[in-house]
Design brief:
Chain A: Belongs to the ferredoxin--NADP reductase type 2 family. The complex is a heterodimer of chains A (about 350) and B (about 110). Chain A has about 350 residues and is α/β, with parallel strands linked by helices. Chain A is about 20% helix and about 30% strand. In chain A, α1 packs parallel to α3 (about 60-75), α1 (about 15-25) runs parallel beside α6 (about 300-315) and α4 packs across α5. With about 110 residues, chain B is of the alpha+beta class. Chain B has one domain: Beta-grasp domain (Ubiquitin-like (UB roll), Roll), CATH 3.10.20.30. Chain B is about 15% helix and about 25% strand. The model of chain B has no long low-confidence stretch (mean pLDDT about 90). Classes of the chains: A alpha/beta (about 350), B alpha+beta (about 110).
């Protein structure tokens, strides 16, 4: 079981900055995120897009902002549970919380900070009648173990980077790779588009465009897919072992909505007059995931909320301690790794 | 201050006639949100970057709309419930020549 002071759900910019503010108070943090890397939307959806309203940064790429935050919090040695979604919460007898992920990883902390943004990112699933029936029986929405596809007949649907990249990768692994996309044009890195073109010319990728998958067939497991060309309505039957629809990710508030928290407008209601605490004492919600009168879903607001939330968390953990806020310029930053950053001392020395 | 009239049919089929300002740098997705014609969290999820299809709508009137950008084209190619008259609301900026525009919000993706 992972034990920490503040368990942060969501490793986007707000969650990451929480580690820093908590660290200044000597509180340890651990983060859970459904995505395989930290950074949330900034890393997953728009890493190459500029942001212009981070104070002190006239312009910063979303991906750079995440890199900077990771650097800033490094001295505080945050723990990460990545690629797992926080699923269940229980209150223990000592008043602390036990959070279990979809993969069964258990986390224990007296304070929970939900910094879940829009929710956890789940694969967008195409609307096909038999889709759920064949999940894990030939249908998968992400590729975890490429070896599963060795010498199999694989059909990939989608027109973005992941559809292109996996088609390229599996061309060397699977016995047959078919790529189906609703349009002739693909949205991806130029290299990937050219590589797919090349593999198509070599007969290593069977490209069907413009077309869509309209039916999945099989008994116990997936055996056949019907693809319809959208330009002439021709229907093509394909024998396949695996179907991998790659239509990107969409955020869902998910299991958090069943934790007994007060929800309004798909967001968690918090006390904005004080500390961004939810209706359950000890559970806070910060950043895009919360709502209160006048709420703005901005990264800079998330930073502010994280800062105030940490002060409140400190008082909950140490009700008897008095804490006086100290400027980092005055107090420096002392990491849990023994590192110390501080302003250079002025030298008092006579000049002779 | 200048407003145009827009007719928006929400996801429950209810028609709303709303005033949309043309001088506030607003797009159709933001107009829908400002009148709360679709629940928060179900529209404009990506914030208007043409990176999700939560603001997809069907254009019902004959207005001449600006051409789709590559990003919008690509997103609509991956979205669900797409029709020939599908557009992303976040890519339609409110201008005077859109007075009388009629749109219908596409269903929410499951």
């Amino acid at each position: 079981m992972i034990k920490t002071d503040i368990l942060i759900i969501g490793a986007g910019p707000t969650g990451l900055f929480t580690v820093f503010e908590a660290g200044l108070l000597q509180l340890k943090c651990h983060l859970i995120d459904a995505l395989p890397q930290p950074g949330g939307q900034c890393a997953e959806i728009y890493p190459k897009k500029p942001i212009y309203d981070i104070p002190g940064f006239p312009e910063v790429l979303a991906g750079e902002l995440v890199d900077n935050l990771m650097e800033q919090i490094k001295p505080f040695q945050p723990g990460f549970t990545l690629g797992e979604r926080a699923e269940r919460i229980e209150k223990l007898e000592d008043g602390s919380f036990l959070v279990t992920t979809n993969k069964g990883t258990k986390h224990n902390a007296p304070i929970i900070a939900i910094a879940g943004g829009l929710g956890s990112f789940e694969p967008r699933k195409p609307m096909l009648d038999n889709l759920f029936k064949f999940e894990d029986k030939g249908v998968a929405y992400m590729i975890k173990e490429p070896e599963v596809y060795r010498d199999k007949k694989v059909l990939i649907a989608g027109g973005g980077d992941s559809a292109l990249d996996w088609s390229i990768f599996l061309a060397d692994v699977a016995s047959e790779v078919t790529l189906v996309h609703r349009r002739n044009e693909f949205r991806g890195a130029l290299d990937s588009v050219e590589k797919v073109q090349q593999l198509k010319n070599q007969g290593k990728i069977n490209l069907i465009t413009p077309a869509e998958v309209i039916d999945l067939q099989g008994g116990e497991k997936l055996e056949k897919i019907i693809v319809r060309k959208t330009d002439n309505s021709e229907e093509i039957d394909l024998d396949v072992d695996n179907f991998i629809p790659l239509f990107g990710l969409s955020p869902k508030l998910g299991p958090i909505s069943d934790w007994g928290l007060e929800i309004e407008k798909n967001a968690i209601k918090v006390d904005n007059t004080l500390d961004y605490q939810t209706n359950i004492p000890g559970i806070y919600a910060i950043g895009d995931v919360n709502t209160y009168p006048g709420k703005l879903k901005l990264i800079l607001c998330g930073f502010h909320e994280a800062t105030l939330m940490c002060q409140s968390a400190y008082q909950r953990i140490f009700p008897d301690k008095k804490y006086v806020m100290k400027y980092t310029t005055v107090g420096g930053v002392t990491g849990f790794d023994g590192s110390k950053k501080e302003a250079p001392k002025a030298v008092v020395k006579s000049i002779e | 201050m200048s407003d145009i009239k827009i007719k928006i049919t929400d996801r429950d089929g209810v028609l709303h006639e709303v005033d949309a300002p043309t001088d506030m740098n607003m797009n159709l997705m933001e107009v829908v949100r400002s009148y709360e014609l679709a629940p928060e969290g179900t529209i404009g999820i990506c914030g208007g970057m043409a990176m999700c299809a939560s603001c997809q709508c069907y254009v019902k009137s004959e207005h001449q709309l600006p051409e789709k950008s590559d990003d919008e084209e690509a997103m609509l190619a991956e979205a669900f419930f797409v029709e020939d008259n599908s557009r992303l609301g976040c890519q339609i900026h409110m201008t005077d020549d859109l007075d009388g525009l009629e749109v219908q919000l596409a269903p929410e993706e499951a």
